Amino acid sequence: MPSTAPVIYRPDLPFVNRTGQFKEKMPTGTPRSRARGRQPPHHYYNFTNIKFPTDLSLKAFSPYYLDVSKDLRPFMVDPSPKGGPTTVTYGGSLDLLCRIPARSVVSVTMVAPSFTMHSFTQNQRQLFLQVQVNKARLEAPPGVRVPDDAYVAFVTMPSTAVLAPPGYYMLFVINGCIRSEGIWVHIQ
């Protein structure tokens, strides 16, 4: 069911209690979506000249902290989110070269991709990994330019398959409460 009065998450507000970081947007009669622009979700949806016409227009919504001009979101430089999966082993480590503007508390999570069956999401699993973050060294991998706000996150992978069964996971760097674009990791 579409939300006509969504709530905005505000990680920049002080944490007094969890409800203090959420702000309700003004109600509207048109459902909001994260789609761009105000157009039908699919160009083949045509409900003209029918008995019960339906408004399928959507309003664009994107959280303010994902705005590129604000530059708050962490970004993984190496391994790149555009590349293929990175293979890791149990108890092994992974070095992430990250760009972290306005550094806050940095954490790294690994999320198993879920699947839905009969409207129930199965296989939900999120792991908070051990991480140590240091200012980036000057010796970066060949062809990778080290930005001024670059850091290296030394991440320790889960030690057993009990915590993370073998397979593919999305790995995210989180700066404060703002998540980076994810990379795929294959743990085996």
Description:
The protein is mainly beta and 188 residues long. It folds into two domains: 1-62, no CATH class; 68-187, Immunoglobulin-like (Sandwich). Helices cover 0% and strands 37% of the residues. The protein is built from no helices and 15 strands. It has strands spanning 7-9, 22-24, 32-33, 59-60, 75-78, 86-88, 93-99, 106-111, 115-117, 120-122, 126-135, 150-156, 167-175, 178-179, 183-187. The strands form four sheets. Strands 5, 6, 7, 8, 11, 12, 13, 14 and 15 form a nine-stranded mixed β-sheet that branches. Strands 1-2 form a two-stranded antiparallel sheet. It is globular and about 65 Å long.
Fraction of residues in helices? under 10%
What is the CATH C level class of the largest domain, in words? Mainly Beta
Question: Could you tell me the mean pLDDT?
Answer: 75
In the predicted model, the low-confidence regions spanning at least 5 consecutive residues are 34-38
| Total helical elements | 0
β-strand amount: 35-45%
Domain count: 2
Measured distance between first and last alpha carbons: 39 Å
Main beta-sheet annotation:
9 strands, mixed
Helix/strand order: EEEEEEEEEEEEEEE
General shape: globular
Task: From the 3D structure, determine the CATH topology of the largest domain.
Answer: Immunoglobulin-like
Derived from helix and strand composition plus strand pairing, the structural class reads mainly beta
CATH architecture of the largest domain: Sandwich
